[in-house]
Amino acid sequence: MTTTEFLGLPEAPERGPVRTLRVALVCMPWAALDMPSMAVSTLAPVARALEEVSAADTVYANIRWADHVHEHTGGTIGSADYGRIVDGYYVATGEWIFSPALYGFEEPVGSAFHTAATGSGADLRAAVEMYRLSSGFVDALAGELVAGGYDLVGMTSTFDQNMPSLALARALKERAPHVVTVMGGANCDDVQGEALHRNFPFLDYVVRGEGESVFPALLRLLARTEPGAAPAAARLAAVPGLCWRDAGGRARANEQPSAGLPIDAVPEADLSGYFSTFRAARAVADVEPKIQLEGGRGCWWGEKHHCTFCGLNGSLMAFRAKSSDRVLAEIANAVREHQVLDVVFADNIMDMGYLRDLLPKLAEQPWDLRLFFEIKSNLGIRQLKGLADAGVTQVQPGIESLSTHVLKLMRKGVTGWQNVRLLRDSRTVAVFPGWNLLYGFPGETEADYEQIIGQLPGLWHLTPPEGVYRAVLTRFSPFYNDPGLGLENLGPSGLLQKVYRLPAEEVADIGYVFESRPAGISEEVADRLRSAVDTWRAHHRGRRLVALPEGDTLRIVDERDRTPVQEVLDTPLAVAAFRATLKGRSAAGVTREVTARGLRATEDRVTALLEEWRERRWLFREDGRYVALTTGLGHE
Predict the structure, then answer these.
(1) Angle at which helices 587-596 and 603-615 cross, to 10°
(2) How much is the pTM?
(3) What is the distance of C-alpha 523 from the center of its chain?
(4) For the segment 203-219, what is each residue's pLDDT rounded down to a tens digit?
């Protein structure tokens, strides 16, 4: 198979190359410091496979920026401050920090953004110092790229990478107008890419959709065009997803492909640029680097039932996954080359087929890996044990709520009691789940949360959520696309409008986050939820609730409070009823299960037992189901 066939590219024009191109692929702040960018890691091999490209270098300007700030602040601002921006500490803070590099400096303290953000409780002291340093960093970076003799500089943009990338593109054009500037990434999907190209003329091209097909087609056209000239309009118009300018300077946007690239057309990622930059940096001495790989794209759950609040897959939801053999080979290659054992998968959701084929193969390897996957939260303990045996130590299960009613409003396809069961079983098999609680969904009630708040002390021995957040209206989500779902769109983020010097309608086309009228529970109820979670987090360390089999009995060891308690369930009915709650059962279901074992019990008797155990916080009750909270027991 030729490279052209593999990538699904059109054949090169008949006329031979006029020149070969030197290409730089830049990852600007605020990409995470602890792992490579999948965008530049996969696009670099695509570009290098073309005869029209003499070099395709990856530039990790995010790490360079962390070093720049570290040096200019004497180390007082470090990776932790950078991480707060990455984690979305405050909407558009990362964009604001680089705004002087695009629009020119204004005193940050007292500016519209600073006033609004600090007025809402944000601590922007570190951000202000970074704001003062951004212009100098962008100028120096642009100078280095021009000196490097690059013909084209491509920038990938997701979340708060827009303003840093735009600032670099402008600086490049001011120094070397002949350098072609290209921008792509999640922030360029659909109308966003068209708006960026329309509003910022120093962007020569914007790639909408998956770059592995659009970008090489553009490179081929540019290589057959004299420096400083634009390819023929007819040829540019034939590249799906490309935004370009005609002879009159008018912005044009080709229709974006409706289907995603076949996963086999995505080459193995080249992570070497990241690791060489990381290991030479000083500001990341306290950061543990990770290998980031890709098993699949899209979301198989979203194809069937798109979660109402989720906009992460943009316009390409169709799920595609690499074979288990290919994933296994890519893990092995990356671990051997970079000598790092932490492997993070960028997939929005793990291919369920990997439970059957990839995980057993990983479990057979003599590696001590620490793997991360995003999973669905209805997995059972055997499936979680398969993850653990394969070296998966961390998962993101997308729990989001412990209320079945609220989860139905989200279209999560899972129940609250199943989420509690996953937290319990994750503790049993030593897999750490990272999760958040979300609220603010049209149709939710105070009762949905009060029943949960009252039972949270029973979960103190399980992994608490990382935070409690009101659901945000984001582009591409069902809430955004269907106002009938009840989340009213009030326009683009107010803070983002204080960063971009554009009309509100243009910011609305560029932005990902939107203002909405608060829905669901009041902030008073949300504050009670936060307080209960804060207490959970404060009491979590060192807590245990374990069920230990001892012959025909069960010993319950409860160390969630200051005074440990032990009790033995020694009657056949008690043991059978308690074990029946491991998977989550109604009182009627438990009664059926114990009577099927030949035990005599009425539903009233069983209900009395279950309620006694719930009051002791051994069971969690939700949506009519009782779930055992004790760790240590598998499922029969």
Answers:
(1) 120
(2) 0.95
(3) 26
(4) 999 999 999 989 999 99
